[in-house]
């Protein structure tokens, strides 16, 4: 799942990490230069023998402080601190060379600057800050934006992710997700998690706590897998001890009755329908009465995905919402629909406020744009992913798992 986008995100992490390493090496060399300067300050001593002694002392001091500090900090740090230790070692080596050459004449204050540089770099790595140059990062962020947009991530969501990555890289990362030991990847993972996890709530808790019957209405266009999803959810609920009744509120489309009826029969759950052209609100109302009379826990009501006019459809949904006052309205669309799914989610949310979304066909290698964008754009969480045609192919949406999938392929 999401293989294309995962590859692009991986490339971004690798490229930025490479620059961070290059930057770190440059800084290490700069620190080492400072060390070179410090050591030879000893040459200003009056006698040759003093100069030799002092040079040795200065060299030891440069080694000791720089390497020891860096090594000590690096011990506390995670894997990333190893770079800093390496830098400190480089600095030590170069400082030794400089001592032998004895070529510079800067004051010993620079020694503490050098020490600070290495130690602070180690600390930065340890706390999740990087030393990447802002201009370099800007170039990489442009690449990341292209990668996201070409994978159908909505523009405002892409911007949010870029802002998140940038602030996570130049600031302190929040570390809600387990660190991968790669700062750039961690920054990206946190930024993705922020947009994907918007509004998450526990669906099962909501069902358990609500007064019965719980009424759930499904909205979304035809052909995306709405009917199949209703059936999958009935099966999912049954597995968790809840009975349900299916109601066909799609009285517009010929064949809808038969389709949902077949699922009800296959699952052996009650089914309420009216004639084609009837009032969908009345069908769902009947199903609620049936549930109340028969102690059924959950009413699952389908709605039309298309009418003569889109206003007609939206009016119908508003009427259901007004009269039935469902406990939840869930928007269903295809993960593979990308930006279209995001646009439709917004439209349906405006007509009948949704509580969450279900993305079907996540098994059909979607780009990932819809999965990343819908929650942030609508402010409502994705609750389930459809992962196949069977009734068992409905997986609760776990933002952390999706982030892992997108960044680690797990
Ligand atoms: N691969 C895959 N196919 C799915 C998934 N969910 C539904 N489908 C298939 O998508 C097709 C359309 O599903 P329906 O449930 O009929 O879609 P609908 O939204 O009710 O559409 P209409 O019947 O036209 O109203 C069917 O062949 C389903 O088996 C899924 O998660 N993965």
TrEMBL record:
A molecular function GO annotation: GTP binding
- How does the record say this protein sits in the membrane? Peripheral membrane protein
The record lists the catalysed reaction(s) as: GTP + H2O = GDP + phosphate + H(+)
Main subcellular location of this protein, as a coarse class: membrane
Specify residue ranges for compositional bias: Acidic residues: 15-41
Q: Where is this region: Disordered?
A: 1-116
Keywords, sorted A to Z: Cell cycle, Cell division, Cell membrane, Cytoplasm, GTP-binding, Hydrolase, Membrane, Nucleotide-binding, Receptor
Show the GO cellular component annotation of the record: cytoplasm; plasma membrane
Q: Where is the SRP54-type proteins GTP-binding domain?
A: 381-394
Q: What class of enzyme is it?
A: hydrolase
EC nos? 3.6.5.4
Q: Bias regions of kind Basic and acidic residues — which residues?
A: 1-14
Q: Which GO terms describe its biological process?
A: cell division; SRP-dependent cotranslational protein targeting to membrane
Which residues does the annotation say bind GTP? 220-227, 302-306, 360-363
Give the InterPro entries listed for this entry. Answer: AAA+_ATPase, P-loop_NTPase, Signal_recog_particl_SRP54_hlx, SR_rcpt_FtsY, SRP/SRP_N, SRP54_GTPase_dom, SRP54_N_sf
Q: Does the keyword Cell cycle apply?
A: yes
The similarity comment for this entry is:
Belongs to the GTP-binding SRP family. FtsY subfamily.
What protein am I looking at?
Signal recognition particle receptor FtsY
Q: Which organism is it from?
A: Halorhabdus tiamatea SARL4B
Lineage at the top is: Archaea, Methanobacteriati, Methanobacteriota, Stenosarchaea group, Halobacteria
């Amino acid at each position: 799942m999401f293989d294309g986008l995962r590859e692009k995100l991986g490339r971004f992490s690798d490229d930025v990490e490479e620059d961070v390493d290059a930057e770190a090496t440059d800084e290490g060399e700069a620190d080492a230069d400072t060390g070179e300067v410090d050591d030879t300050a000893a040459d200003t001593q009056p006698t040759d023998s003093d100069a030799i002694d002092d040079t040795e002392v200065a060299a030891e001091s440069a080694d000791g402080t720089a390497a020891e500090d860096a090594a000590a900090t690096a011990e506390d740090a995670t894997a990333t601190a190893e770079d800093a230790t390496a830098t400190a070692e480089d600095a030590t080596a170069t400082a030794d060379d400089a001592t032998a050459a004895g070529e510079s004449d800067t004051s010993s204050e620079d020694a503490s600057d050098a020490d600070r540089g290495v130690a602070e770099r180690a600390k930065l790595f340890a706390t999740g800050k990087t030393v990447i140059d802002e201009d370099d990062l800007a170039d990489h962020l442009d690449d990341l934006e292209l990668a996201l947009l070409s994978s159908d991530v909505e523009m405002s969501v892409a911007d949010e992710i870029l802002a998140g990555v940038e602030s996570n890289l130049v600031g302190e990362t929040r570390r809600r997700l387990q660190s991968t030991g790669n700062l750039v990847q961690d920054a990206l993972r946190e930024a993705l998690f922020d947009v994907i996890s918007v509004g998450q709530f526990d669906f099962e808790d909501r069902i358990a706590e609500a007064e019965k019957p719980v009424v759930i209405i499904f909205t979304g266009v035809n052909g995306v897998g709405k009917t199949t999803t209703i059936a999958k959810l009935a099966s999912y609920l049954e597995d968790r001890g809840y009975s349900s009744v299916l109601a066909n509120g799609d009285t517009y489309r010929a064949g809808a009755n038969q389709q949902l009826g077949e699922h009800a029969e296959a699952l052996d759950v009650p089914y309420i329908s009216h004639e084609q052209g009837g009032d969908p609100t009345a069908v769902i109302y009947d199903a609620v009465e049936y549930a109340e009379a028969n102690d059924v826990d959950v009413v699952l009501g389908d709605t039309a995905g298309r009418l003569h006019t889109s206003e007609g459809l939206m009016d119908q949904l508003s009427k259901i919402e007004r009269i039935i006052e469902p406990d939840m309205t869930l928007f269903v669309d295809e993960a593979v629909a990308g930006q279209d799914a995001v646009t439709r989610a917004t439209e349906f949310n405006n007509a009948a406020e949704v509580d969450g979304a279900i993305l079907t066909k996540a098994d059909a290698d979607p780009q990932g744009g819809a999965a990343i964008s819908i929650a942030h754009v609508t402010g409502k969480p994705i609750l389930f992913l459809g992962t196949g045609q069977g009734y068992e192919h409905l997986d609760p949406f776990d933002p952390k798992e999706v982030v892992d999938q997108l960044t680690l392929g797990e």
